[in-house]
Fold:
Amino acid sequence: MRQLYPAALWFVGVLFAAWPLSADSAECQCTRFRCRSDLGEFVYAVEQMLAVEAQWCVRNNSAYNAQGDCKYCSTNCKEDICDCGRSTSCDWASWAAGGLCMVVGILLIGIA
Structure:
């Protein structure tokens, strides 16, 4: 039982170290968004009419809402232009679940 305590502390430490940091800071406001696809890179404001290629990019990428803003979280904010992150990179619960599965797997291998 004493061996589980350091493993639990290690797990908690890894979770906090891997906690995704938000790109939303006081300097960057995400007034424009960037969508990348095989057709190119499109930078746009959600208040403007998107080009047909930009609409295709946004609608075929699960990280964006239909109007072009981020569905989950914004990343890489530079000069008020932001990329949108996918759910797995924005949601800390998926990282925690993956880490917990790894710890349980290691413990079960150790028991076997």
In short: Strands lie at 32-37, 40-44, 73-78, 81-85.
